[in-house]
From TrEMBL:
Keywords from the UniProt entry: Methyltransferase, RNA-binding, S-adenosyl-L-methionine, Transferase
Keyword field contains Transferase: yes
PANTHER family (alphabetical): NOL1_NOP2_SUN FAMILY PROTEIN _ ANTITERMINATION NUSB DOMAIN-CONTAINING PROTEIN, NOP2 YEAST -RELATED NOL1/NOP2/FMU SUN DOMAIN-CONTAINING
Similarity comment: family membership: Belongs to the class I-like SAM-binding methyltransferase superfamily. RsmB/NOP family.
Annotated protein name in UniProt: 16S rRNA (Cytosine(967)-C(5))-methyltransferase RsmB
Region feature Disordered, mapped onto this chain: 1-33
Annotated binding of S-adenosyl-L-methionine, by residue: C286, A287, A288, P289, G290, G291, K292, D308, D334, D353
Organism from which the protein derives: Pigmentiphaga soli
Amino acid sequence: MTASSDNASPRRRARPAARAGHPSPAGAPAGSPGPALAEVLVAAAEAVRAVLDGSSLTEALARTPAPLRPAAQALSFHAMRTLGRARAVKRALIPRDPAEPLLDALLLVAFALLAADAPGAGADYAPHTVVDQAVNAAAGKRRLAPFKGLVNGSLRRFLREREAVLARLAGNDEAAWNHPAWWVKRLRAEYPGQWQDILRAADRAPVLTLRANRRRIGRDALIERFAAEGLPALPAGESGIVLPQARPVQQLPGFAEGWWSVQDAAAQLAAPLLQPRDGMRVLDACAAPGGKTAHLLELADLDLLALDVDAARLARVDDNLARLGLAARTRAADVADLDAWWDGRPFDAVLADVPCTASGIVRRHPDIRWLRREDDVGRTAALQARIADALWRVVAPGGKLLYATCSIFQAEGVNQAEAFAARHPEARRLPAPGQLLPQAASERPGEQHDGFFYALFAKV
Ligand SMILES: C[S@@+](CC[C@H](N)C(=O)[O-])C[C@H]1O[C@@H](n2cnc3c(N)ncnc32)[C@H](O)[C@@H]1O
């Protein structure tokens, strides 16, 4: 799991400087002027454009110039969380998508700010400041300059006709829930009593959850060390602590010393479910970046092989283990191709944290919902089944396979586990949490978690 990266959320910045068109960069002293809002709008529009063209927001923001990045990150996160409504507003006022892709994205970012619902939800900027700065943004960029009249006219028209435009969006699921319509339809069908709560939870700013490395420091001692630094934290599960306000992880004590890792509370359930004991032969089949590999090794002295098909991501497993003072064998391989990597010796425990649509972690990664396509769900489920079937062959008699995904779609969870059990009569289901749903109703910080699915099988 990666750190929540929206700790510069515009919700938390309401400084006078921001109202004057200068957002203060995250981490800068209050009142210190940041870059002009016009520059930030262009940088955020470039990031949003990249996502609409298929890039992840993390990759896109890595290309943003460093001085603009914190403010561009805050705006682009906000735009991702409100893109459904912003797009519907834009189409109500400008029915044909502009031919210039960056203009389209600039309009989306500006409408995301202007159409925000609640005061504070991206509304740190006075509406007329947003309009003026968006026009400046267009004027200052050669590709956009011919369209500054369109920017000015459409944004001002929205300010004049706001209520009437928003009223025309009634019944538009994408605008109402800020998720693609197919996503809303799927959740409505799969969770008739909970879908609204799940969607609402997706738009809350996430807490920051860490896992104490018990080889270095216990959970409660870690809470005390953070408290001594003025960082209140709550316990979450056996090894977890929650910081109600996300922060840049580099600013927290003990990272370099390997005291902790960033890991969501639901993800922290994986390693204990396999009940690792000293000397066990364990396979972490889809290991990168190594969050669960490290947790397994924190719990017991294991003979552990960590595989991942992506060699670059696998390098992060080595880095993370070194920081935490842990060791495993790592190998880049397609886990379903047993001939390529398996020496024929079975494993006592296998963790299959399979690739998935990541529909359970949209709170931390609000771009995911716009990157996925409906047919990704079936394609991903087929890959998961292929991986799970291959892995079942490497489990020792009496050994266990833990199937895990950070998805909330049933094709990747409940249905997948049932189909697996039907294909493998020698697989006995053991108690496991099943589907965990992120829900707005259980929003106490210590109880927040991502959407996850777990099924545990023993080979009889
Ligand atoms: C959900 S992530 C794993 C997260 C990891 N277990 C952790 O806790 O940090 C899924 C991983 O599966 C890997 N993967 C996808 N297809 C694979 C395959 N055929 N064989 C091995 N790894 C694969 C991806 O590269 C990705 O790193």
